[in-house]
Amino acid sequence: MRKKGLPSVYLPGEYGSVEFRMAYDAAISGAAALVAPSRHEYGTFDWLIEHYKRAPKWKKLRPISQYNLGKDFDRFSRAYGKRHVVTLRTEHVEAIIGKKADTPSAANHLLKLIRRLCHFAMKKKLIATDPTLDVERYAENPDGYHTWTEVEIQQFEAHHSLASKPVLALRLILNSGAARQDVIRLGRQSVRDGRIAYRRGKTGGDVDLPILEELNDVLQFVPSTQLLFLTHTQGRSYKPTTFGNWFHDQCVAAGLPHCSAHGLRKAGATRLGDAGATELELMAFLGHRTPDEARTYVKKANRKRLGDSGMEKVARAKREQNLSNPVERLDIHRRNALKEKRN
User: Are 169 and 231 in contact (CB under 8 A)?
Assistant: First the structure.
């Protein structure tokens, strides 16, 4: 639109829509600079995502959350960005997430993303009802990623040599609690006075731990001229996804296709829990700001110890009962011998 004394302004949305009226009122009041033109066709998922990133809720997200959600939006946009939100039906959502049925957690993550967009579309008056409402989540492992067992750790190290990069990666995660995005940034700058320290990218929590002998044994194989402990080809640093894919390939090679880098982090926490670590000690290892997840490992360890102590009490009671009621058990040969002696 044009108005005398004011610059020309692009009015987004369909004529008469809420978005159109808001932009029109802003332009009339002289607040045209606040109205940003859309790069995408009105009502498409691309348009919706663009406006989602302009909303105050987006601006309140932490940078790492904006980065991760932005990546999810980008992937969805490449596949479905040109489609109009109003045409989305329940059966369409089921078909979209059904493509990831082999990985239930990924399918549920995608469903959560679509549901987020649909809720925002309802606020923007694009749709009246949520097409994801009746879509059921896929059943998945309640514990999430598989937690490595000590046997699996030994199998992985037996397949790869002690001086190999896979074993270095395994022991770094296992002994530092680092997630994928954290372990790729660990290097000589992270080590001082026999300790390894870093700040978690996801939570911002500080981690500062002593370097155990198990980890020190493999760090000695890292060239002294290499700053980062784990590097890609030609000394380049890893990206989190690239590192995760590479490490999973190493798991497959070792006959452990169900294992992952994140499962190692859980294995490290399980070790602490089994050793009697407190919630606060587990928080320090995991780099968490709240004890919620740490409490899970403490509960599991306590349950195991209580189960052991309970069964030991049963075994001890049975031993005491046998001692107080000795029974002479005679085999058939001794009974026959006694009969012959009496005769």
Answer: no
